């Protein structure tokens, strides 16, 4: 069992010895100089040695005090480092990023390991939802929103303008727009009613192709299911080149012909009334860098 002097006396001595001043030690420990003097005197009585040579308006360490100071100083420094490290673990930065389920699965998830490797100190949570999350309430810190905007009460930054084109499995052998007459169209149900939605009706009009029912084919409520159906060779989808970039790179999907049509802008948004932490800033910077190097292939 350890038999140690009172911790208050050891702290008072270490601070006074470091500053060679009872007054400055008192200021550091938020007590009075009289309390420092009293605690040091008690310590000297407990260990049976004199630690300070007291002079008028000055204190000097005795030989015994010079032996004790580095031991206590190094010990308290070690305690401080360990406690700070433990406290930092409890204060790990967290960032919640909201995006649609399709964008989360097809774009964010393949890249999330890179973010973790770059910033292992930030716990990033991906909130995959089609609902519009209230960013000013703290439900999420950031969101990727796809649309024309504006976004009232939010700080919005455009990241990319998406492009859409017909994509299909190379097994279908599609070569020219006329081949769509014998192909199954795959549709994704847009939740918003907007004439700018990149639909088959809009694409066929821009491409100048007649005689194809733009409503016929298979319809999906989830974008990822439409992508999977296209990969399986079920039909041809008019899809975001941003979301199918991996499939295009591996040739499981191809763009057999154009034209490409412009979709909406993908915005990075956050609550304007929420604090902008270093972790949020780092996540924003990472997203900007990822978009800068992953523009849809032409």
Q: Key features?
A:
298 residues; alpha/beta; Arc Repressor Mutant, subunit A; D-Maltodextrin-Binding Protein, domain 2; eight-stranded mixed sheet; two-stranded antiparallel sheet; 10 helices; 10 strands; rod-shaped
Q: What is CATH's topology name of the largest domain?
A: D-Maltodextrin-Binding Protein, domain 2
Count of DSSP helices? Answer: 10
The order of strands across the largest sheet is 4-3-5-10-6-9-7-8
Q: Strand fraction band?
A: 15-25%
Question: What would the average pLDDT be, to the nearest integer?
Answer: 88
Q: What would a concise description of this structure say?
A:
With about 300 residues, the protein is α/β, with parallel strands linked by helices. About 40% of the residues lie in helices and about 20% in strands. It has an eight-stranded mixed beta sheet, with helices on both faces. Strands 1-2 form a two-stranded antiparallel ribbon.
How would you portray this structure in words?
With 298 residues, the chain is α/β, with parallel strands linked by helices. It has 2 domains: 84 residues, Winged helix-like DNA-binding domain superfamily/Winged helix DNA-binding domain (Arc Repressor Mutant, subunit A, Orthogonal Bundle); 199 residues, D-Maltodextrin-Binding Protein, domain 2 (3-Layer(aba) Sandwich), CATH 3.40.190. Helices cover 39% and strands 22% of the residues. Strands 4-3-5-10-6-9-7-8 form an 8-stranded mixed beta sheet, with helices on both faces. The protein has a two-stranded antiparallel ribbon with strand order 1-2. Strand 1 and strand 2 form a beta hairpin. The protein is rod-shaped and about 105 Å long. The model has no long low-confidence stretch (mean pLDDT 88). One of its GO terms (biological process) is DNA-templated transcription. InterPro entries: LysR-type_TF_proteobact-type, LysR_HTH_N, LysR_subst-bd, WH-like_DNA-bd_sf, WH_DNA-bd_sf. NodD regulates the expression of the nodABCFE genes which encode other nodulation proteins. NodD is also a negative regulator of its own expression. Binds flavonoids as inducers. Belongs to the LysR transcriptional regulatory family.
């Amino acid at each position: 069992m350890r038999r140690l002097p009172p911790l208050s006396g050891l702290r008072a001595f270490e601070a006074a010895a470091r500053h060679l001043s009872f007054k400055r030690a008192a200021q550091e420990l938020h007590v009075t100089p009289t309390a420092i003097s009293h605690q040091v005197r008690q310590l000297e009585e407990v260990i049976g040695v004199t630690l300070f040579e007291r002079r008028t308006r000055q204190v000097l360490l005795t030989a015994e005090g010079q032996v004790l100071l580095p031991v206590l100083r190094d010990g308290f420094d070690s305690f401080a480092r360990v406690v700070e490290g433990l406290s930092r673990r409890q204060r790990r930065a967290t960032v919640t990023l909201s995006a649609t389920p399709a964008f989360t699965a097809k774009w964010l998830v393949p890249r999330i390991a890179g973010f973790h490797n770059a910033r292992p100190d930030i716990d990033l949570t991906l909130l995959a939802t089609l609902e519009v999350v209230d960013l000013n309430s703290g439900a999420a810190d950031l969101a990727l929103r796809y649309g024309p905007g504006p976004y009232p009460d939010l700080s919005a930054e455009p990241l990319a303008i998406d492009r859409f084109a017909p994509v299909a499995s190379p097994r279908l052998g599609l070569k020219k727009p006329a081949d769509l007459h014998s192909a199954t169209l795959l549709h994704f149900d847009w939740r918003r009613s907007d004439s700018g939605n990149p639909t088959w009706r809009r694409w066929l009009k821009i491409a100048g192709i007649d005689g194809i029912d733009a409503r016929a084919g298979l319809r999906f409520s989830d974008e990822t299911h439409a992508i999977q159906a296209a990969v399986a060779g079920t039909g041809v989808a008019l899809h975001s080149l941003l979301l199918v970039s991996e499939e295009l790179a591996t040739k499981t999907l191809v763009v057999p012909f154009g034209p490409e049509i412009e979709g909406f802008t993908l915005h990075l948004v956050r609550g304007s009334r929420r604090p902008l932490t270093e972790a949020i800033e780092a996540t924003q910077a990472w997203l900007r860098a990822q978009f800068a190097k992953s523009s849809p292939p032409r």
